[in-house]
Design a protein that fits this description.
This protein has 246 residues and is α/β, with parallel strands linked by helices. It has one domain: Alpha/Beta hydrolase fold, catalytic domain (Rossmann fold). It is 41% helix and 24% strand. The protein has seven helices and ten strands. Strands 1, 2, 3, 4, 5, 6, 7, 8, 9 and 10 form a ten-stranded mixed β-sheet that branches. The longest helix is centred in the middle third of the chain and has 26 residues. It is globular and about 55 Å long. The two termini are 27 Å apart. 38% of the residues are buried.
Length: 246
């Protein structure tokens, strides 16, 4: 890991850009975090739109985390932003657009091609990011995961023991294989669902929630589209992490 920007102070938050090999990322820490007072870490998941485009929303979530006493970090997803294009992923996205524009059902073959290779590649990268972030003196444990792509969050919740709680954002297609993996997930979960999300299969999101094997899991469904999550829903997710990371 190499930090590539000087720390920028923003409302009591230090924002540092880094590279992990060829993967760009951002780390936000409260100014109070230090070797003598390390803070828990929340990994911020996001859709594959590029860190530059997602930065305002990610920074807002990071400021909330810092206000609650947590560090937050994110990395660029494969095939997105400044990373090299991924021909297979581009083709899967094109196939998805064609199906949706034609009003056709989105088949399992399109969903699998769109999501599974991304999960297979992204999850080890998130784990590598944890390997690099947790030794920093101002970062302690435990670790939470917040956001989407929800299938990445499911896989991480299953295979990464350092993640002890997850707030997952429904709103992306879920392969049947990920649904089966969800049955083995046992950490506490807080799931956000926008009821009128035009790009989301609501029933698939409900089926995924039902499949989770966690004893503690809660579903928070609100009216509105994909980006219309109300502030009180975000506040509830913050309270969820306060309970489980402190």
């Amino acid at each position: 890991m190499h930090f590539t920007s000087e720390p920028r102070l923003d409302g009591g938050v230090i924002e540092r850009e880094f590279t992990l090999g060829e993967i760009p990322g951002i780390l936000w820490t409260p100014v109070s975090a230090s070797a003598s007072a390390p803070v828990p870490l929340i990994l911020l998941g996001h859709p594959p739109l590029g860190l530059r485009k997602m930065h305002p929303r990610l920074a807002g979530r990071a400021r909330q985390a810092a206000a609650d006493g947590f560090a937050a970090a994110t990395i660029e997803l494969p095939g997105s932003g400044e990373r090299p294009r991924w021909a297979a992923l581009d083709q899967a996205r094109a196939d998805l657009r064609r199906a949706m524009e034609a009003g056709e059902p989105v088949g399992d073959d399109i969903i699998d091609a769109l999501v599974l290779p991304l999960v297979d590649k992204a999850v080890p990268e998130w784990q590598a990011a944890l390997d690099a972030l947790l030794p920093l003196p101002e970062i302690g444990g435990p670790v939470g995961y917040s956001g989407g792509v929800i299938s990445i969050g499911v896989r991480l919740a299953l295979v990464e023991p350092r993640i002890v709680a997850a707030a997952l954002f429904a709103g992306s297609f879920v392969p049947r294989a990920i649904l089966e993996e969800a049955r083995q997930v046992t950490i506490p979960l807080h799931v956000l669902l926008q009821w009128d999300d035009e790009g989301n299969n609501r029933q698939a999101a409900l089926d995924l929630f039902d499949a989770f094997g966690s004893e503690e899991k809660s579903l928070h469904a609100n009216m509105g589209g994909h980006t219309g999550v109300p502030q009180f829903a975000g506040d509830a997710a913050a309270q969820f992490f306060t309970r489980h990371l402190t």
